[in-house]
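Job type: complex structure
Entries:
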Amino acid sequence: MPLPLAFNAELFIQLLVNGVTLGSLYALIALGYSMVYGILKLLNFAHGDVYMIGAFVGYGVLTLLGGPLSPNIAIAPLIVLMFLAAMVTSGLLGVVIERFAYRPLRDAPRIAPLISALGVSFFLQNSALLLFGSQFRSYDSFVLGSENPEFFEPGPLTDPVFVIRNVNVQLIQVIVLATTVGLMVALTLLVAKTQIGKAMRATSYDREAAAMMGINTDRVIASTFFIGSVLAGAAGVMFGLLFSQVFHFMGFLAGLKGFTAAVVGGIGSIPGAMLGGLLVGLAESFAAGYLGGRWSDLTVFGILIFVLLVRPSGLLGTRAIHKV
Amino acid sequence: MGSGGDIPEIPARPDERDRPRVGVDDWVASVEDRREGRAGFAGLARRIDDIVPAWARLAAFAAVAATLPLWMDRGDLFAYGIFTLIYILLGLGLNVIVGNAGLLDLGYVAFFGFGAYFYALLSSEHYGIHWPSAISIPIVIVSTALLGLVLGIPSRRLLGDYLAIVTLFFGQAFVVFVNAANPTVQGKGLTGGPNGIADIDPNDLFGYEVTTRRQQYWLILGVVLLVLIGLHFLSESRTGRAWRALREDPLAAEAMSMPVNRLKLMAFAFGAGIAGLAGCLFAAVLTAVTSGNFALPILITIYAVVVLGGIGSLTGVVIGAIVINVSFQFLAPENPQSNARLLFYGIIVLLLALGVRPWWRLGAVLGGTVVFGFAAHAVAEAISPSWTAGAVVEGGRLAELVSDWVIIPVGHDRFADAAYIALVVAVLALTRVHGWWRTGLLVPTIYLAAIVWETSFVEQPAVARWILFGALLVFLMTVRPQGLLGTPRVEIV
């Protein structure tokens, strides 16, 4: 049955699919922001750059194993390996950043760790520029695993899994969505059911009281950074697989949007970050489709301002009590 | 901390650190910290800063700065003189926001850009409008300040973290707007897109056009001095004291019935206005503006200026701007590498001399590094001549010395990258070890730094300087958050 809509339904569905995939990326990034903010009340500006490093690690694994045009191993384990390597490296990077740039500033005035975070972000960006150069690196996910990559024959990642009104939903989009949902379920279970999750909740509620109850808050904070950065690393590889291009500056904008997603959903709230990511992704996709690509960033910025004006605590956040 | 050498060592209890100590609470401990902060070079600088009255510092700066054009050529005056002054101006504006009111403004550079673009629109060939500076500059300053006010309002209730991210986004949106959006007004792109706006009028002093580099320099110097004097009196005024109170403890300030939000917005608008003024002067000096001049790296540089000098100190901003801009220009791609090399090794030796005590330990480190270098060079050469076959970029006497000492391989692609990563790891490890371990680790770290310098930084000085500025911010924040001349603060809340 054709939808009784006056506009181009195929374009709409295409934008919806793109928006949901993009949104799941932003949600993964937003989770890292939100968790760290919830536990330390710190904006981790370097988070976007951890995501960028994750994307580069995925690219490095791909290159080590023969490159996108002629991988040495089958495509399924290859992608799993890329994800694992990127997630572990990003996670460790997050822990190192916390240990050296934020922990010495635990009791400093609020502004000091923010400036430190800015420095870390800038340092990582330019280190990537030094190590990998300024050119775009391509995952070539379009031809990844294809029989004849030199003839640009599409690989299995672009196979349509199902079709809605002539809009193909590609395998890679399904993989991204499934991975995101899997990671989020795992995270929710971790926070709700395990001992470390309980410790994290306690620490974010009141760090001092948690420390008095015998919780090793330093370790809890480190594991929060690890988990947040693991998610960012996974998002980095997803970005590479979806859009094929990774470059040293990609973390900046993605970080800003991930942060917006965290604020929209309510910073500090895990389901809020997921919802916010989805909303930001959809907004960006529709703005790009209907208004033009150059307006998508400004739209996200507008959403952030709007949410801050109307509901500063976000959609699912609890209203914070500010003394001043 | 303890200095009593003749007191016999009593073995410490295993839980010594956690036990309560009589008469040493947090406050007293922090006072001790502050006293300690006065030792060494930074402490000396601070004591001088305390003794010399403000007018004398200003007069000294003005006297030295005013004679600069008499012995500098035009290019140097532009790179070292005018740019330093612009950075001082930008740093002063940011200092009002970050230093006086304690707000984190990450879109500051967009105000600078807004000022420059607005000035360009009011006085250039772009639309054929040529307003005199006496009219256009005040208009620009006021509208930049208003823009700051408008931007501050949405984050009014949640100043602090939210302000940081809104302003960061604003900075990015400004670049996107100028570059890509470029709306058409009167048949022409408003901002000129990626090409920017060219043929901007020079500043004029009531009809007298300021065109040569010297005249521009003196004009900007005059403006900087006026702003310095104004800010000095401002910080002594009722508002200035209110800002300081606000920065130290917003809760107490609120309890003293200070209009906290209004004060914050005021500081924000005030800083934005100064950035707008800097933008006017900058646009007139460059005669063209493009969005690349107002992107993230410049923001980081301005932050480095303010943080290095010491947040909240006017003298600190001036010193920070001079240090940052001079090293910045030394690392500019068009500058001869021998200068940058000299600066690099000079800074390493200087830092060691300031940081490593006593003298024999310093001697051990320096001697050890030299010996270690020659040994490593010999070993590498013995393994394969290709490891040391590389040539040092650009000559100079220091380069000849260095080429026999540093490993510069040919044909080992990833060596420079590996050395860079090893250097980062070594520097991080340095912060975790103490005593002789640290001294021992310093030797390979310095050698690694030399390798990284000669193999990758020299080829990409522009990237190198951003890396160094980023690292500088983290280093200063973790080691000496008050910078060179700032006052250490104790957060009570």
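Summary: The beta strands of chain A are 137-138, 160-164, 167-170, 245-246. Chain A touches chain B through 51 residues (CB under 8 Å).
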